[in-house]
Amino acid sequence: MAPGDRIHDVVVVGAGPAGASCAYWLAEAGWDVAVVEKKHFPREKTCGDGLTPRAVRQLADMGLEGALAGAHRYVGLRSLGFGQVVELAWPEHPVYPSYGYTITRHDLDGLVAGRAAKAGAKLWEGTEAVAPILANPGPPPADRSSRGNGGVGRASVLPPCLGVTVRDTTSGATRAVRARYVVVTDGSNSRLGRALGTARRRDYPLGMALRGYFRSPRHDDPFIESHLDIRDPGGTVVPGYGWIFPMGDGRVNVGVGLLSTAQRWKGVNTSALMDTFVSWAPKSWELSPETACGPPTGGKLPMGLAVGPRVGPNVVVAGDAGGSINPFNGEGIAYGYETGRLAAESVGAALAGGGPASVLAYEQRLEDEYADYYRVGRAFVRLISHPQVMRACVSVGMRSETVMEGLLRIMANLMRPDHRGPSEIAYRTMVAVAGILPDPAEPDHPR
Ligand SMILES: Cc1cc2nc3c(=O)[nH]c(=O)nc-3n(C[C@H](O)[C@H](O)[C@H](O)COP(=O)(O)OP(=O)(O)OC[C@H]3O[C@@H](n4cnc5c(N)ncnc54)[C@H](O)[C@@H]3O)c2cc1C
Considering only CA atoms, which residue is closest to atom 49 of ligand 1? Predict the structure, then answer.
């Protein structure tokens, strides 16, 4: 049998957090998994490099917490806004640790992909998926991304797929990788997902972020720092946030993130915003063009399950390719690991005899796990997109440590399942309120 004729149980496209986690859990369960990754590890990936307790939990479950020993461990979040500062430790939780790590994606992603390979997945680096092999080739999917809900939440599903055509990035040679199930985890641009028919809801928030590294005497600060009142060069507050994440290796990761829900999004120049943030950040960090380690790079953050459809009879979409970033805080690594794991469980159940029904159930599992929370997150993002509301919330909230503690728990999705404390009660109230609020359509933004 020629290599291209072999039919794998699963082909996973992309070995970032979502793909590597999916491949690990499938390989661990004994399935024949091929992972195609267009880059070679270690590789750079633009990110804030912040792992929250949710991400740490997933890494620990994959047996990788020991491998983080050299990474910078931090204990909580310092928030600054409109002249106020609040420093909060990660809360106690029965499931998640009360610490996080910072680690470059250069170092992290190869670790997890390597773990999947050690569990038995075939990891083909330098191998780019260029097109799906459709079971019933026909005209390309209609462009549903131009307006409105982009197919998400409709009954529509992705078409059946026999595998992917891949290109060796060194030789340029192409070949077919065939599989019974296809997992799409190719990140926020998701070329393969779009070729299959996914589209982003333009009425959902989209983040746009830029980050760079700086040498800093505070590189091993025990808190990550978030700035809630970033300004454009004219001094006007914009809907977004700035961050300074100590890396523990002599550097800090500094970035700005913008939210697409405001009309003013189009006018904001993110590079200028970054320069302004760098010059305006607390001097003790010593951020300046002289301490910069290189020019900043940026990327998009599809949030709140903004991309769909996420299933077909033998296809699932996870991570950024499915828009799984948390709208509250722009965190996507943990949700990549989690949705990759859910995808693996659904595909594993399908392979074990459940067939397409098990794959289609993935969507329901996503809904059960995230729908309420992300609906609240989207409402939150719309609210804070109004600078006056943002200012009022920050200045009132930051006067009370209890409010900020509750908010941290909600924003990092660390509510306790076993306890009804103030944050859990506040969150249930938010779910109820968000349920009766409309999700209004937003102006068009480029995908
Ligand atoms: C500036 C910025 C800062 C961020 N900061 C944080 C943070 O601090 N903490 C956090 O939790 N999240 C952060 N995020 C979000 C986080 O980076 C993403 O949510 C996360 O990387 C999603 O993982 P993924 O596996 O879905 O996609 P990715 O990490 O993008 O992985 C996709 C993989 O697929 C590969 N690939 C793509 N196309 C193909 C193809 N055709 N064939 C084969 N392989 C392919 C890519 O090379 C890549 O390895 C940030 C994002 C940005 C842009």
Answer: 16
